[in-house]
Amino acid sequence: MLLEIMDRLGVGPADTLMIGDTEYDMQMAANAGARGLGVSHGVHAAERLMASRALDCLDSLVEIPPWLERAASGAVERIA
Question: What is the average per-residue pLDDT within 13-35?
Fold first, then answer.
């Protein structure tokens, strides 16, 4: 599914960040060559998301914009 979305939008894996709340979301990102950002307030706990190769794990959706700003400034691991 993520490959189809990337193709439709004309973006590659280096320009894609999958945000999800399950280990399956993180696996989908990895399988597409993209990075995954976990949000632990959904289905799976932070430990499970991180074990599934999430780049990071947030506790709430409201943390996403500040996280993206930090990522853009280089304050977190490069997402590409």
Answer: 95
